[in-house]
Amino acid sequence: MLVKNFDHLWELAKEKQGKRIAVVSADDVEILHIIDMAEAEGLAEFVLLGDADTMREIIAKEGFKIKAELLHQPDHAQAAQKAVEMVVGGEAGTLMKGMLHSSTFLKAILNKEKGLNTGRHITQVSLMEKEDADGLMLLTDCAISVAPDLMGKKEILENAVDLARGLGYEKPKAAALASVEVVNPAMPETVDAALLTMMANRGQIKNCIVDGPLAFDNAYSAEAARIKGIDSPVAGNADILLMPNLTVGNAVSKAISYVGKKNLIAATVGARVPVVFNSRTETDKGKLYSIALANYLVD
Amino acid sequence: MLVKNFDHLWELAKEKQGKRIAVVSADDVEILHIIDMAEAEGLAEFVLLGDADTMREIIAKEGFKIKAELLHQPDHAQAAQKAVEMVVGGEAGTLMKGMLHSSTFLKAILNKEKGLNTGRHITQVSLMEKEDADGLMLLTDCAISVAPDLMGKKEILENAVDLARGLGYEKPKAAALASVEVVNPAMPETVDAALLTMMANRGQIKNCIVDGPLAFDNAYSAEAARIKGIDSPVAGNADILLMPNLTVGNAVSKAISYVGKKNLIAATVGARVPVVFNSRTETDKGKLYSIALANYLVD
């Protein structure tokens, strides 16, 4: 099933009869507000870990209609560990980060014995709708990997390819971004982009077509690529934009969101299941979409 | 006079009785097409350097109404040098790049004896309209300076401050961008951003208020800054976004243009006069705006 746009994903999530999402440290009004909305929309079912009294108080005070089971786990680290155990044991489909430190949340997920570690780094993907809303474009990494080297970029790309395949893109096209389309040793990101292209050509990166270096305009717009005389299977037609580093990914995704007024869905990938990991500054709609995405993707 | 938005700039350029713009290597149909439109709109007057026969042929064949003087200068380097001499001698207000290599064009401008060199590097600014179209925002550098060090960033900022002041922003507010708002030695752009802030506080960078590191969302949106608890005179109110490097500037400006569908005006600054230096992939409207900008700014 090819997921065409955000509305389509929303409908697919509502139809899905999946396992519950375990919310770690849900004893917070903003988190419970999102859970309340997600339940009302039928996007997913939840189990909430946190201080049970606090959760009950907030739910009563705010008039939330939350039906999810509440588990008393006031300690953040223990709540994270318990939620991971629930996923490992099949009692939950995936995890959602509530009001706790990112490092505490990730530490439980990445625990080598009891966690959801796959050996790959945890990376981030921002999804947006393509121009004609007839397809999704994945931007990665916009939030987690600061300055990946070549093999780090390979992992980021592989995580995004797996996500794209989960969304029905059997052999996604990936543009390795730089600021120019030629190899220039003075611009190290052009070197990495060219190497990733050849690694895909040689089968070292599987299930995708990679081309780079490409500048943003050539990756995004077939017309811009044509004017520049770029012959590429990816230019103007990219499913994945691989960012050269976090600074680029962060600024580009924020520019698209704040200047371009486009919704982006954040996904956190690389663990055994995609987890829900929203920024506080994310819009309610963005947070609901990322819950829909996780519910759709996990068993 | 505070230039409020692109329409305002357009009107100011039409009212301006300035010197002609000398177009270097104008013997090209795309370049002459833009000149024809700019003349028809009354945005500027021109003098065209290039192969005179070729220019006449194109003008006749395309039915252009161009009234500009044609100077026979078929050699690119000589045309660039002659155009610079015209600006130095007061016969032209500034230069516009036609169909020649960027390096040939810039070499003539930066010639130490006969050029328009100020001792500063030539840098690029992309202008966009603020959200409410009641002000301009300058993004720099999005096209020229690949990996500036601290002092290079200081020059880029100073060039942008001069441009902002030419547009009526007496003491522009500049955000030094990074991907986070805290100083982190593992993210060198956060260190440079903090140092630029302190350099402005100490009067080493004049005529502006600088704050950084700021992430794009905090620089652009007062609401995002408030949610993050950032107290800053610049957050949510920036006139200048100083990019950490070209890769960020290039990708952010292209994302705003291609995804956000916003017009950007490209300006090339750091020489004695702002010059017109458009990319081939720029829209006609964008090219006309950059002519309007140059005509408005030069004497």
Topology, pairings included?
The structure is a homodimer.
Chain A: H1 6-15, E1 21-24, H2 29-41, E2 46-50, H3 52-62, E3 69-72, H4 76-88, E4 94-97, H5 102-110, E5 123-129, E6 136-140, H6 150-166, E7 173-177, H7 188-201, E8 209-214, H8 216-220, H9 222-227, E9 240-242, H10 246-258, E10 265-269, H11 284-297
Characteristic key phrases:
homodimer; 6-stranded mixed β-sheet; 4-stranded parallel β-sheet; 11 helices; alpha/beta; 299 residues
Outline the low-pLDDT stretches of chain A.
none
Oligomerization: homodimer
Which chains have the largest interface?
Answer: A-B, 38 and 38 residues
| Strand residue content of chain A | 15-25%
| Overall strand count of chain A | 10
Annotation field: number of helices of chain A: 11
Overall mean pLDDT score of chain A? 95
Into which percent range does the helicity of residues of chain A fall? 40-55%
Q: Which series of helices and strands of chain A comes N to C?
A: HEHEHEHEHEEHEHEHHEHEH
The shape of chain A, in one word, is: elongated
First-residue to last-residue Cα separation of chain A: 15 Å
- Find the structural class of chain A using helix and strand composition: alpha/beta
Strand order of the largest sheet of chain A: 8-7-9-6-5-10
Radius of gyration of chain A: 20 Å
Main beta sheet of chain A, described?
6 strands, mixed
